[in-house]
From TrEMBL:
Pfam families: YfiO. It comes from the Bacteria. This is Outer membrane protein assembly factor BamD. InterPro entries: BamD (IPR017689), BamD-like (IPR039565), TPR-like_helical_dom_sf (IPR011990). It is found in: Cell outer membrane. Part of the Bam complex. Residues 38-232 form the Outer membrane lipoprotein BamD-like domain. It comes from Stagnihabitans tardus. SUPFAM superfamilies: TPR-like.
């Protein structure tokens, strides 16, 4: 046994401890007393469950036990972020959000702080429903994703956060468009116009702006306001001339004896100066 050092002995002891946990553990850690095991051994059991079992749910109680039995240890910190990750994997989003928030609150300088914020954002983002439903979670996702983008721009999660931010932003615009189309179909032009105006003013970088401008042309023609309809058509033609929505708007204007050109002093005139002439002040 010469040359068998203390480090090797410790490693063997941990391996034996983990083997004992794996071999003798009941179905859940609540059914056994884990206080005889070290934080590291319990944590490794959680990792084992996470990698070896069909459902990651079996790992969660072990990570929770590390936090409960060894609250001030380094493994408690690691176990907390693993709880957040595992709960998110099992789609227990509220619980995942709570675990991630605890990490943010308890370990603001922790090495996994960027990941904790990212998991917090994902817990909202992955709950975003179909366009037709309430978008409160989308707003929450946007705010949480912005924290990752702005506070941790050099982290490995920033790029993914930016992509998800754009998708969530587009999602909100889609919601406005859906409501606007509903009002327009019923010829409630003023109500529809408010929705399409929101898209043009607040969601200008999304994929819905071209259609929103075309619908604005429809609304203003329906309201009998030709100057505004022509200005919307001019903006659409300058920025999205290759879009089929521009052709639809052009045909509609022509049918009513109008042409796409900037006229009047409405809110669209400001948009025209910004988007076409580059006058932002």
């Amino acid at each position: 046994m010469a040359g068998f050092g203390a480090g090797a002995a410790k490693g063997l002891g941990m391996a034996l401890g983990l083997a004992l946990l794996v071999a003798c553990a009941p179905k859940t850690p609540q059914q056994q007393d884990l206080s005889a095991f070290t934080a590291e051994e319990i944590f490794q059991r959680g990792e084992y469950e996470l990698s070896a079992k069909t459902s990651p749910k079996t790992a969660i109680p072990y990570f929770q036990e590390v936090e409960r039995l060894y609250p001030y240890s380094e493994y408690a910190k690691r176990a907390l972020i693993m709880q957040a990750y595992t709960l998110h994997q099992t789609r227990e989003y509220e619980e995942a959000r709570a675990a991630a928030q605890r990490y943010v609150d308890f370990y603001p300088a922790g090495e996994d702080i960027a990941y904790a914020h990212y998991l917090l954002a994902l817990s909202y983002y992955d709950q975003i429903d179909e366009v037709g439903r309430d978008q409160g979670l989308t707003f929450q996702a946007l705010m949480a994703l912005r924290v990752v983008i702005e506070d941790y721009p050099d982290s490995e999660y920033a790029k993914s956060a930016m992509l998800k931010f754009d998708l969530a932003f587009d999602h909100l615009a889609a919601k406005e468009m859906e409501i606007g189309r509903y009002y327009l179909k019923g010829r409630h032009y003023a109500a529809a116009l408010n929705r399409f105006r929101t898209v043009v003013q607040d969601y200008q970088t999304t994929t819905h702006t071209a259609e929103a401008l075309m619908r604005i042309v429809e609304c203003y023609i329906g309201l009998g306001l030709p100057d505004e309809a022509q200005t919307a058509g001019a903006i659409l033609g300058y920025n999205y001339q290759a879009s089929p929505f521009y052709q639809d708007a052009f045909n509609l204007l022509k049918k009513n004896g109008l042409a796409p050109e900037a006229k009047g002093t409405s809110w669209l005139s400001t948009i025209y100066r910004q988007m076409v002439k580059g006058e932002w002040l």
